[in-house]
Amino acid sequence: MKHAIPWGLTLTPYEEILSSNQEGCRELMDVSHFHFDLFGSYVPGLCSGLALHYTDLGSVVTPEKYPFLHILFQGGVAHLFKFVSDEYGFTPAKGYNSKCHLCFEIRRYLVMEKGVKAKEFQPRGFYEDN
User: Which residue range forms the structural domain that includes residue 54?
Assistant: First the structure.
């Protein structure tokens, strides 16, 4: 069941989002739209707050260097959700606008609530202002 929120938007239960997003996040590979921020980080698609330093472009994204980005690429938001729930205690809201909204809230939780300083969660100010 979707939940209505102001402005006519609806929230999809997080369970529904997770069950329909069991594969890797392919948006991370889309190079039809991307940005470079002022810190020299590549920002994939519309994934604000995720960054890959330009010197790492063209290289394998390893779990040692970019653990959360690796989880997203390999298993999508469902695997990120499971990992962060199990390892960091993330508790979801009832619903989200989209898988991207859920992904952002998980990342915001890691940065702001748990103090995670992952290389791929940049710039930190993005999470502070949201």
Answer: 3-128
Q: How far is the C-alpha of 106 from the C-alpha of 102, rounded, in Å?
A: 6
| pLDDT tens track for 3-35 | 545 566 789 999 999 999 988 888 877 777 778
Residue ranges of E strands in the chain: 3-4, 10-13, 34-36, 41-44, 52-53, 95-96
Q: What's the token pair of residue 66? A: 């970019």
Q: Please give the angle made by the CA atoms of 125, 89 and 51, to the nearest 5 degrees.
A: 30
Average pLDDT over residues 52-74: 90
Q: Give the β-pairing of 41-44 and 34-36.
A: antiparallel
Residue-averaged pLDDT of the chain? 87
pLDDT at 123 over 60: yes
Three-state secondary structure call for residue 44 = strand
Into how many domains does the chain fold? 1
Residues 6 or more apart whose Cβ sits within 8 Å of residue 38: none
